[in-house]
Design goal:
- The structure is a single chain.
- With 217 residues, the protein is an alpha+beta fold.
- 35% of the residues lie in helices and 28% in strands.
- The protein has helices at residues 5-9, 49-57, 59-62, 72-87, 135-151, 165-173, 202-216, and strands at 34-36, 39-43, 91-98, 106-112, 119-126, 155-161, 177-188, 191-201.
- Strand 4 (106-112) and strand 5 form a beta hairpin.
- The longest helix has 17 residues, at 135-151.
- It is globular, with a radius of gyration of 16 Å.
- The chain starts with a helix and ends with a helix.
- The structure holds coenzyme A.
- Residues 1-2, 12, 61, 64-65, 123-126, 131-132, 136-137, 158, 160, 164-170, 173 line the site of coenzyme A.
Length: 217
């Protein structure tokens, strides 16, 4: 999805073995730390602010998404808001930390579209220097597994501006299905943009993962 206006303003290698998401007794209390293929996902920390401000504020990263907060204060308010929404069971935001690093280089978010979390929408952004490295795919797999296995999502949607070649390419390559175009659905800096609607359905995802792991062994 385009990192949704609601999220900001409310204040993700080829087939490699993955560790199943650690299930917490309750993700609303705290997000689990989950790892696989050179990446760890964990709760956002206030100390991620300087790095994420720089990385997500870059013109190329922010071009097709809702403008991220531009100040330390704004970003910290976003993190506080994300934690409140997680506690309320409506939304989660993972920080993406590559192996060997300590600070976040991106975020993956999921918000509920219905009160049972049966349908949800996800979005993601990672720093420009990590594009094309396989980090997206690794983090996306962990996030989608978490949505289906832990949050209990059945249908995971994403919206990407039609003009966002990389965003749409990334969704296509992990097996999301492009369902259509939402005309003029995204208001960004005074202009309406068309968005592609993508979905991943739990049964398809699990089948795809089984085929993938069978192909490796
Ligand atoms: C979206 C994002 C997380 C993807 O991460 P990434 O590392 O760039 O993704 P990848 O390189 O693994 O995959 C992108 C795919 O799109 C392809 N692609 C790039 N430009 C493209 C274009 N104009 N049209 C179609 N596909 C394109 C790439 O070739 C790649 O596919 P490949 O690996 O098969 O070659 C990252 O680009 C990002 O943070 N972008 C800014 C924020 C954003 O747009 N978020 C998404 C909102 S939906």
């Amino acid at each position: 999805m385009d990192i949704s206006v609601r999220e900001w303003s409310g204040y993700t290698s080829s087939i490699a073995p993955r560790r199943a998401p650690e299930t917490t007794s309750d993700w609303r209390m705290r997000l689990p730390v989950i790892s696989g293929s050179g990446v760890t996902l964990r709760e956002l920390r206030m100390s991620d602010t300087p790095a994420l401000l720089d990385l997500l504020g870059e013109t190329e990263v922010a071009r097709h998404i809702s403008p991220p907060p531009t100040t330390v204060d704004g970003f910290e308010r976003f993190i506080a808001w994300a934690q409140q929404e997680r506690s309320a069971g409506r939304y989660i935001c993972f920080a993406v930390v590559p192996e060997g690093m300590d600070t976040a280089v991106g975020i993956f978010q999921i918000r509920q579209l219905d009160p049972q979390f049966g349908t949800a929408e996800w979005g993601f952004a990672i720093g420009r220097s990590m594009w094309g490295t396989g980090l997206f795919r690794a983090a996306a797999r962990l996030t989608v597994d978490f949505a289906f296995d832990t949050l209990g999502v059945y249908r995971l949607e994403a919206r990407a501006s039609v003009a966002n070649g990389r965003g749409n390419g990334a969704l296509a390559k992990i097996g999301a299905v492009r369902e259509g175009v939402l005309r003029r659905s995204f208001l960004r800096q005074g202009q309406y943009h068309d968005q592609a609607l993508w979905s991943i359905v739990r049964d398809d995802w699990r089948q795809q993962q089984q085929i993938g792991s069978a192909a490796v062994h």
